[in-house]
Amino acid sequence: MTAARARNGPDSCPGVLRTHGALDGELARIRLPGGRLCADQLAVAAQVAEEWGDGHIELTSRGNLQLRGLTDSDAAGQALLAAGLGSPGAADTVRNIVASPLAGRIGGHGGVDETVTELDKKLRGGAAQGLSGRFLFGVDDGRGDILAHRPDVVSRWRPDGGADLIVADHTVGTVARPDAAAALLTVAEAFADVRGSAWRIRELDEPARTALLVGVVERLDPGESDGAPCDITDGLADTPALVGWLPQDDGAVMLGALTPAGRLPARTAEFLAAVNAPILVTARREILLADLSAPVADTVLRVLAPMGLVFDADSPWTLLSCCAGAPGCAKSHTDVRADVAAHLAIHPVEQREHWVGCSRGCGSPTTAHIRVQAQPDGTYLRMPT
Ligand code: SF4
After folding, report:
1. Is the beta carbon of 357 within 6 A of some atom in ligand 1?
2. What tens digit of pLDDT does each residue of 142-198 get?
3. How far is the CA of 66 from the centre of ligand 1 (A)?
4. Domains within the chain, CATH numbers bracketed
5. Would you call 3 helix, strand, or coil by DSSP?
6. Does the model's pTM come out above 0.90?
7. What spacing in Å lies between the alpha carbon of 190 and ligand 1's midpoint?
8. Does 327 sit in the ligand 1 pocket, CB within 6 Å?
9. Per-residue pLDDT tens for 217-261?
10. Ligand 1 and 332: CB distance under 6 A
11. Contacts of 37 (CB under 8 A, 6+ apart)
């Protein structure tokens, strides 16, 4: 089996200890399993951003955090590790898990936290170490929000209590939910054995991908499969932005917020942490505070909205995202964030747009959008994607 798309050079995805040298200093990426983190961990990330970074926390398109401009990446990394925000060695960068943010609280077919925690624990323990830092696991509570991000392998809750196993957009069978984490790892390990220079399953050529899918069916013997993988690409769609007051099924309140250009000031993060509620970061760069009483949620809104957090579901920021651009990224033709802010000041935004500083298109949504791509002369080209 061979990979169709050869990558040039080794995978250099940053983690908390293996940082990336950007133009504005070292960059650390903090992988949050399923976007979940506790208040104490956010407080530590904010402290690190203030002490050694540029004073901000970036939210990424995989529901992770990034710290930029680190002046002492070793000290920063050790502080993050001590807070449980990373893992030593190669295990850190393979912990790429996205999970339905509303699971267990609003709709869906049940909570996903047990599966996410078990999967993360096994990855921290050394499972699937042959993966690249780009491979993506997903746990979808049945609403399809995680499928829309096109992970390499997804466990999707079924209404009957089981879980579909979906590999590169193909359903290969069904497993019991307690077996979901192990099934996800089995697929990842099967891919790691054959991936060659491919980082994602989608990068395998067609015969190799088909052989992998059939091999997974044989290895797991997941029920309800005739051995012919079923394509689920049709119907994948974006779900509404999780912004504002979101009533939970148990009567509590979840608050959803956006931060302009996905950049959260450390000072604002400290206020978020002080609420002392469960925090979820989504793959659309939303920040959710869960399990709030109505009076607490009301207070949070009144304190944090004036600090720049966006709680308005009609805000143009629900339709806009962008890459880091200059001055941090050496490849960028322009200061993308500044250009987005200037554009927003005079133009309405009616469709989903993702602005990027070069053709690499970092952080692009997997659903339909307009890519607004900077050109070498500093102008932008709008391209439906
Ligand atoms: S899209 Fe280009 S300019 Fe933007 S962060 Fe990626 S490499 Fe840099």
Report:
1. yes
2. 999 999 899 999 999 999 999 999 998 888 889 999 999 999 999 999 998 889 889
3. 15
4. 17-85+244-312 (3.90.480.10), 97-231 (3.30.413.10), 319-384 (3.30.413.10)
5. strand
6. yes
7. 31
8. no
9. 878 876 655 545 566 765 566 788 999 999 999 999 999 999 999
10. yes
11. 85, 279, 280, 281
